[in-house]
């Protein structure tokens, strides 16, 4: 199968390298990148060169940001090409449009690499959503943020030192405010929950960044046997859903509290299966490219899992309640209320969720 590679940053370059190393019958015929490379005849800066090459059956998109990626993905689908994407910003901004177009054109649209790096998360959500009723999806879905918290906690690094390291290791987005401000986790939350709850989730959800987590706050929590991780939280009951992205207070003994470096750990709770946890490297060129290879193999073998997003979902903030840890005290409330208060007061807040809820 001949493919085009869109984007030649950390992930794009790693994918090219992996496909060269592995003899799996997938050839990168053209590469779209802004910077021309006269030494590589595959490289072009004209998207039309890819569209016009009828040998190309599939595109692997590893660009960053919504545009021009969203338009490119749609034009590729309109021309009958299959699409594999790692671009959570483009996918989350118009999941419905992209999915409906791929269905209309009968092309594969796969995006395992958009959430959780190398973790087989999206395919498992799709499978579980069809076989069981998913009641909750949550977890650490940003490698950069986890790396920062882990380095502050275990090595005593300052926030900015840890962020710089994460950037040097290729974990952070081109603009790292997308990581620490929560937009990246927000995009992954919207994608994961839409698939899990089988409907397009409300996108106006509470999001608080993690840039104000301080070493002092971590040591205070430690005294209580707790710590913090940057997490997405969500619950569903029938058609009602609540979602959010927030620094989350958890027990020091929990699995999430022991997630190191750039690793992610995401969970889903099935009404029948109970809780399942998925763990692995959530960022970095090769881990993310590896997830793209798995999607390309599904395209090559025509094995893309169908998934139906036909439910109407509505917001119900009362599904996520707990305690807000503010610098000036602790308050009980829904996650939406507490995030609203934090924004109003322009204050840091971490959220500790109430215990198990009835299904
Ligand atoms: N910047 C992202 C992260 C990359 O750190 O998780 C993977 O999506």
Structure description:
- Helix content is 37%, strand content 25%.
- With 359 residues, it is an alpha/beta fold.
- The protein has two domains: 2-110, NAD(P)-binding Rossmann-like Domain (Rossmann fold, 3-Layer(aba) Sandwich); 127-282 and 311-353, Dihydrodipicolinate Reductase, domain 2.
- The strands form three sheets. Strands 3-2-1-4-5-6 form a six-stranded parallel sheet, sandwiched between helices. Strands 11-10-7-8-9-12 form a six-stranded mixed sheet. It has a three-stranded antiparallel sheet with strand order 14-13-15, with helices on one face.
- The chain starts with a strand and ends in a 6-residue tail after the last strand.
- The model has no long low-confidence stretch (mean pLDDT 96).
- The protein binds L-homoserine.
- L-homoserine binds at residues 117, 142-144, 171-173, 179, 184, 282-283, 288.
Give the number of domains.
Answer: 2
Unreliable runs, pLDDT <50, ≥5 residues? Answer: none
The CATH class designation of the largest domain is Alpha Beta
CATH topology of the largest domain: Dihydrodipicolinate Reductase, domain 2
CATH homologous superfamily title of the largest domain: Dihydrodipicolinate Reductase, domain 2
What sort of overall outline do the alpha carbons produce when their principal axes are compared? globular
Order of helices and strands: EHEEHEHEHHEHEHHHHHEEEEHEEEHE
Helix content: 25-40%
Judged by helices, strands and strand pairing, the structural class is alpha/beta
Distance between the amino and carboxyl termini: 46 Å
- Which strand order do you get reading across the main beta sheet? 3-2-1-4-5-6
Number of helices: 13
What radius of gyration results from the CA coordinates?
A: 20 Å
Average pLDDT works out at 96
Quaternary status? single chain
Please provide the count of β strands. Answer: 15
Note the beta-strand portion.
Answer: 15-25%
């Amino acid at each position: 199968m001949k493919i085009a590679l869109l984007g030649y940053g950390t992930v794009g370059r790693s994918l090219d390298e992996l496909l060269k190393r592995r003899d799996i019958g997938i050839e990168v015929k053209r590469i779209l990148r802004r910077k021309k490379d006269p030494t590589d005849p595959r490289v072009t800066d004209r998207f039309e060169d890819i569209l016009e090459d009828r040998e190309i059956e599939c595109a692997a998109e590893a660009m960053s940001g919504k545009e021009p990626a969203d338009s490119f993905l749609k034009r590729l689908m309109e021309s009958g090409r299959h699409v594999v994407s790692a671009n959570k910003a483009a996918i989350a901004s118009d999941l419905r449009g992209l999915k409906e177009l791929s269905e209309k054109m009968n092309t594969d649209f796969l995006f395992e690499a958009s959430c959780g790096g190398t973790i087989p998360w999206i395919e498992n959500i799709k499978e579980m959503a069809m076989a069981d009723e998913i009641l909750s999806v949550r977890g650490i879905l940003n490698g950069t943020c986890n790396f920062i918290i882990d380095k502050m906690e275990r090595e005593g690094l300052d926030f900015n030192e840890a962020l710089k390291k994460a950037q040097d290791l290729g974990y952070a987005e081109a603009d790292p405010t997308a990581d620490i401000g929560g937009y990246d986790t927000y995009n992954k939350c919207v994608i994961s929950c839409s698939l899990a709850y089988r409907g397009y989730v409300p996108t106006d959800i509470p999001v608080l960044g993690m840039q104000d987590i301080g070493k002092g706050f971590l040591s205070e929590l430690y005294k209580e046997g707790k710590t913090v991780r940057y997490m997405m939280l969500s619950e569903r009951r029938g058609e009602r859903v609540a979602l959010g992205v927030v620094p989350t207070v958890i027990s020091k003994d929990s699995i999430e509290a022991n997630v190191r470096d750039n690793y992610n750990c995401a969970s889903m709770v099935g009404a029948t299966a109970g809780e399942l946890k998925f763990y692995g490297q959530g960022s970095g060129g090769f881990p993310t490219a590896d997830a793209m290879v798995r999607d390309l193999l599904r395209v090559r073998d025509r094995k893309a899992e169908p998934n139906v997003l036909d439910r109407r979902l509505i917001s119900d903030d009362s599904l996520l309640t707990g305690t807000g840890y503010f610098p000036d005290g602790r308050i009980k409330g829904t996650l939406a209320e507490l995030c609203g208060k934090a924004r109003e007061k322009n204050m840091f807040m971490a959220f500790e969720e109430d215990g198990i809820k009835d299904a």
